[in-house]
Amino acid sequence: MSKKIVIVGHGLAGSVLAHTLLGLNQDVVVLEADLPHAATQVSAGLINPFIGPKLNIPEDFLPCMRANERFFDKIELKSSINFLEKIQLIRVFQSQEQKNKWNKSSELFKINTITQSECLEMGIDSKNGAGITRAWKLNSQEFISYSRQLLSDQKRYNTELFDATKWQHCEVVFCEGFRAKLNPWFKDLPFSPAQGDVLRIQSNYRFNASNGTWHLPENQSSQAIIGSTWKHEDVESGATLCARNEILEKLTFLPDLKYGEILDHQSGVRSGTQDRQPILGTHPVIKNYHIFNGFGSRGCTTIALSAREMADLIIRNTPLPIHKDMVRFLGKS
Ligand SMILES: Cc1cc2nc3c(=O)[nH]c(=O)nc-3n(C[C@H](O)[C@H](O)[C@H](O)COP(=O)(O)OP(=O)(O)OC[C@H]3O[C@@H](n4cnc5c(N)ncnc54)[C@H](O)[C@@H]3O)c2cc1C
Fold it and tell me: Top-level CATH class of 194-270?
């Protein structure tokens, strides 16, 4: 008989891991304390192959997307809800270097390259032009509310904080997002949390566009999500006026955008890590305690594949990829 697996935290990481383990016939219970500043609650859900100012395609992008499609195809069949959507994203080049990098990169995710005047026709001000790329949008808020309902119906969802005395004989997987820094067993790992703000605005502009700061129209509404910002200090400050102004200023590449009303302004904290890789693994002494964390700004891309690797570790003791395994930090202070 397998032991009960307790998942602490029902953000995107905890929820995807829970369903991955349930799909492998494990006995799972999820604890979620509804703490403020959770990342998943504000995530834009953008999955973009070309990341950062260098427009690098991460090495693991294809396996990550295969894992996402495998995971969400199954859930979508069961729920009849489309959580993972294919989109086109206009990646506005901020410099000639970005344009050169785009021209040299793999054709796999490119749809088209557009000139300055073609950009203008699409309402974009960019002297370096832009690239249209294949991308995806994961509706993570809708997924976690669906998951919460499903797990509650199966009596597998408890609204509570983790209490070590209650779950002594279980496997415990901590999926606490940036709150891992308060976890007595894993707090010394090199986390690097970063706050980010997002705005919901009235917008009739219908293209997904980004120059690093993105504008993502919402389906069937004249609203869009725009963001985001990065702040490593005072990460629990909540949404700030400074971040709001920064987002609006960076979107001036969309000159026709009429901001109308700002309908909502929220912030959350990304559970980043110093080497920008997730942190997965088993506690070196307390062998039934595990961590599944550190997904930073790419959780929507990487969590499904990592959940499969984490499940294999817990059930079959299969080693993790070394760049994700927490053992890479053991012995370092
Ligand atoms: C502004 C912003 C925009 C983003 N946009 C994107 C994007 O476009 N694409 C992308 O891929 N990623 C994006 N991200 C990152 C993405 O949101 C995260 O990678 C992902 O959501 C992390 O999920 P998580 O489950 O690890 O953490 P969280 O979502 O923070 O979840 C942790 C959960 O654990 C609970 N918890 C913590 N401690 C305990 C405890 N002791 N007991 C019980 N419950 C506990 C908390 O209440 C919380 O619900 C964005 C993040 C931010 C902040």
Answer: alpha beta
- Tell whether the model's pLDDT for residue 180 goes beyond 80: yes
Using one digit for the tens of pLDDT, what is the confidence trace for 242-294?
999 999 999 999 998 876 689 999 999 999 999 999 999 999 999 999 999 99
Return the CATH number of 5-44+141-191+274-329, one of 3.60.15.10, 3.50.50.60, 3.40.50.300, 3.40.50.850.
3.50.50.60
Backbone dihedral region of 52: left (phi > 0), alpha (psi from -120 to 50 degrees) or beta? left
Q: Give the type of residue at 54.
A: K
Nearest CA owner, ligand 1 atom 50: 43
Q: List the chain domain ranges.
A: 5-44+141-191+274-329, 194-270
Dump pLDDT digits (tens) for 145-154.
Answer: 999 999 999 9
How far is the centre of ligand 1, averaged over its atoms, from the C-alpha of 103 (Å)? 34
- How much distance in Å is there from the Cα of 82 to the middle of ligand 1? 21
Cα–Cα distance measured from residue 143 to residue 72, given in angstroms and rounded to the nearest whole number? 10
